[in-house]
Structure formats: structure tokens, C-alpha cells
């Protein structure tokens, strides 16, 4: 399968702390890659170097064969890499529609195209009924959907999600999983960081495990849960 993104021996230090230690991963076009590991293992840091919030100290990042290691986040968005955050990135007092349209306009100069893109993103995120509402008045789940719609409005080919299920009920997790699956069936590639393994394992076909900044395993969900080192460091099993 064709690779859409490659991290090649990516290293990131914070002072004396080695947050990422020569991490190499490859993401295949059209897959949902799960990224797991204990707290502080470097998952968010890896997402940050992929979307350009952080620059790695060593190593390279290739997107569709192009070296993007030095590009800024907005330049990567224009290329097709977009992400959701662990916290919210939504303007609380701007109606939902305009939150999403603003995001579409950041990549599309043509206003008509941007409006079409906005309508599509609101439809996929099931936000048509809330289009005129202010985000401050929405439930945490709907807020999350606004964030997702903002990501989709940028017309990404690779979406990075950092703990999308945090704070959601089982029903909401199922609903969001369904939306991710449908987008994936339409060809969109995902990297999903998630603590709730039960749900992630049903979504991802391949999982990468980080521990103390190093990749310690990658394989199918079935292989990951059977691996002894993963069980030891991550699941806390002797
Ligand atoms: P995870 O998302 O897997 O919980 P992180 O990538 O957030 O882990 O963090 C990896 C390590 O890097 C942790 O030890 C964390 O404290 C440290 N770290 C993360 N971001 C920073 C930062 N901006 N400055 C200093 N240390 C950081
Ligand atoms: Mg994190």
C-alpha cells in the first residue's frame, strides 16, 4: 500500500528530556492508524511534529513524498494535514457556521467553494441543526463536532486526532467512531491517539505503541494485545 506520511528517525528533546527517540513510522494512504502508549510516552509530541507545532531536533517528515520537516502548521494544512486538539480550538462566541466557514476560507480563496465546503463539513459532523448556535451554548460532544467540522472544512487528506473520545459517553463514542469510519471509507487517512483502547482497537487496523519516546511495537490490534512488552509497559500486566 502507498505511504502517505513517513516519520524518519524523528527525535525531539525538551531540555534534557528525550520526548521522541528516533521514531520511524509509516502511514498508509486510506488507513486508520492507532497511536497508543502510557502517559508521557510522546504521543502528543509526535502529533505536534507531524502537524508542525513542533520542529524535530533530528529526523525528517515526508508527506506524499515531500519533505515537510521545516513547514509551518498552516503550510501543512494547505498541503492536506489537519488535526484536532486535546482541548478545544473553537471561537466560543462565533456561530457554528462561521467557525467552520472561517476554517474553509483559510484554505479556499473562492467564497462560493468555501461555503460549499462548509455545508459539507456541517452535514458530515451532523451539525446542520446547530449551524446558527454559539459554541458556548453547545454540549461538549457537539463542541467536539464543531472542531471536527473545522478540520474537515480544510479539505484534509490526513487527519490527526488527539484523544477524540476523551470526555464522551459510550453512545457519543460510537457516533463519532461511525463518522470517522465513514470518512475513512471515503478515502480519508487518520492517525488517532486514544486511551480508550476498547474503542480504538475496533477502529484502527494497525496500532503503533510508544513508550518513553520510543516505538516499541507496531501491529494489528490482535497482535498488540498479545505482545508481552506492550502488556508490561502499557497495560500494567506482569
Ligand atoms: P503523551 O501525549 O504520550 O502523554 P507527551 O508527548 O505529551 O506525552 O509528552 C512526552 C514527554 O515530553 C513528557 O515527559 C512531557 O512531560 C514532555 N513534554 C511534552 N511537551 C513538553 C513541553 N512543551 N516542554 C517540556 N516538556 C514537554
Ligand atoms: Mg497526550
What does this structure look like?
With 238 residues, this protein is of the alpha/beta class. It has two domains: 1-80 and 156-238, Rossmann fold (3-Layer(aba) Sandwich), CATH 3.40.50.300; 89-155, no CATH class. Helix content is 38%, strand content 26%. It contains nine helices and ten strands. The protein has helices at residues 43-51, 73-79, 96-105, 111-124, 140-152, 170-185, 197-203, 221-226, 228-235; strands spanning 3-14, 17-28, 32-36, 58-63, 66-67, 81-84, 158-162, 189-193, 206-211, 214-219. Strands 6-7-8-3-9-10 form a six-stranded mixed β-sheet, sandwiched between helices. A four-stranded antiparallel β-sheet has the order 2-1-4-5, with helices on one face. A hairpin with a 2-residue loop joins strand 9 and strand 10. The radius of gyration is 18 Å and the shape is globular. The model has no long low-confidence stretch (mean pLDDT 94). Adenosine-5'-diphosphate (ADP) binds next to strand 2 and helix 1.
Characterize this entry briefly:
This protein has 238 residues and is an alpha/beta fold.
Major β-sheet annotation: 6 strands, mixed
CATH homologous superfamily title of the largest domain: P-loop containing nucleotide triphosphate hydrolases
Reported by name, the CATH topology of the largest domain is Rossmann fold
Distance between the termini: 36 Å
Number of strands: 10
H/E element order: EEEHEEHEHHHEHEHEEHH
Radius of gyration in whole Å, from Cα? 18 Å
How much of the residues is beta strand, in percent? 25-35%
Give the second-level CATH assignment, the architecture of the largest domain: 3-Layer(aba) Sandwich
Q: Regarding CATH, which class of the largest domain?
A: Alpha Beta
- Unreliable sequence segments: none
Helix content: 25-40%
Q: What is the approximate shape?
A: globular
Domain module count: 2
The main sheet orders its strands as: 6-7-8-3-9-10
Amino acid at each position: 500500500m502507498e505511504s502517505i506520511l513517513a516519520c524518519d528517525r524523528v527525535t525531539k528533546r525538551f531540555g534534557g528530556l528525550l520526548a521522541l527517540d528516533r521514531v520511524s513510522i509509516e502511514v498508509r494512504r486510506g488507513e486508520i492508524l492507532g497511536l497508543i502508549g502510557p502517559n508521557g510516552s510522546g504521543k502528543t509530541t509526535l502529533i505536534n511534529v507531524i502537524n508542525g507545532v513542533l520542529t524535530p531536533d533530528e529526523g525528517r517528515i515526508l508527506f506524499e513524498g515531500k519533505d515537510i520537516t521545516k513547514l509551518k502548521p498552516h503550510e501543512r494544512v494547505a498541503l492536506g494535514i489537519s488535526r484536532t486538539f486535546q482541548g478545544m480550538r473553537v471561537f466560543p462566541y462565533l456561530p457554528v457556521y462561521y467557525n467552520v466557514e472561517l476554517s474553509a476560507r483559510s484554505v479556499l480563496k473562492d467564497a462560493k467553494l468555501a461555503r460549499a465546503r462548509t455545508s459539507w463539513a456541517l452535514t458530515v459532523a451532523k451539525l446542520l441543526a446547530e449551524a446558527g448556535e454559539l459554541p458556548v451554548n453547545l454540549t461538549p460532544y457537539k463542541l467536539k463536532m464543531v472542531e471536527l467540522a473545522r478540520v474537515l472544512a480544510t479539505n484534509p487528506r490526513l487527519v490527526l486526532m488527539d484523544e477524540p473520545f476523551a470526555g464522551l459517553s459510550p453512545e457519543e463514542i460510537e457516533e463519532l467512531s461511525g463518522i470517522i469510519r465513514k470518512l475513512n471509507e471515503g478515502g480519508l487517512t487518520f492517525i488517532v491517539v486514544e486511551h480508550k483502547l476498547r474503542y480504538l482497537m475496533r477502529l484502527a487496523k494497525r496500532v503503533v505503541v510508544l513508550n518513553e519516546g520510543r516505538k516499541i511495537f507496531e501491529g494489528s490490534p490482535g497482535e498488540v494485545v498479545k505482545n508481552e512488552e506492550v502488556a508490561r509497559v502499557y497495560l500494567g500486566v506482569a
